[in-house]
Design goal:
Strand order of the largest sheet: 1-2-3-4
Distance between the termini: 35 Å
Structural class: alpha/beta
Largest sheet: 4 strands, parallel
Mean pLDDT: 91
Low-confidence stretches: none
Radius of gyration: 17 Å
Order of helices and strands: EHEHEHHHE
Number of helices: 5
Number of strands: 4
Strand content: 5-15%
Length: about 190
């Protein structure tokens, strides 16, 4: 089920309604292209709160419910921006890098409780968010796709289905021996 929740809220009891689950996929996050010098402090605080702190709070909130389950899977959506330094992505990249680090550590700590924790790191994916990015920077979506594809080794942009397939794999019992991993879904290797 899809549910909307204000991740900046102090009250996470919203999640108490999900008592009988065996998979948790957290896709919290937002970002915008901007030079670090052009960001205001409120944006920095909100980015870290939503993209990093909220993810860790959700995992923590569910821990006591999921630690009693057999073979529970927890996944988080990160980004290739968490692995690289790039102008315009300083805060977004830092927030996703924080979640990558938390994924590695949480997977080790939670493994004895039969909880697997992995992450999916999308590259350029054709979504409404990337369409909005093109509009914000003043180019057509086709121009953004063309520019992105020019540096993607497989020669195409990603589709939402590419990410869904990665998430489904991690949630499946076929990946029951995989934990603490970040799957780089970007049409090529990490550089």
């Amino acid at each position: 089920d899809y549910c909307s929740f204000d991740l900046t809220s102090n009250d996470y009891s919203f999640f108490d309604r999900f008592a009988d689950i065996d998979t948790l996929m957290i896709t919290a996050g937002f970002g915008r292209l901007a030079l670090f010098k052009d960001l205001d402090e409120q944006y920095i605080i909100q980015s870290m709160n939503v993209n990093a702190t909220a993810v860790m709070r959700i995992i923590h909130h569910f821990f006591h419910k999921i630690s009693a389950e057999k073979d529970f899977y927890c996944g988080v959506m990160v980004s290739i921006a968490g692995f690289m330094s790039s102008p315009f992505f300083s805060v977004y990249g830092a927030s996703k890098a924080a979640v990558i680090g938390a994924t590695y550590s949480a997977s080790k700590e939670l493994a004895p409780y039969n909880i697997r924790v992995n992450a999916v790191a999308p590259g350029f994916i054709e979504t409404d968010m990337t369409k909005a990015t093109a509009e914000r920077i003043g180019i057509t979506f086709e121009q953004l796709i063309e520019a992105s594809v020019s540096v993607i080794p497989v020669g195409r942009s990603g589709k939402p289905e590419d990410i869904a397939n990665a998430v489904a794999f991690f949630a499946d019992e076929k990946s029951s021996f995989i934990s603490g991993q970040v799957l780089y879904v970007a049409g090529g290797p990490k550089n």
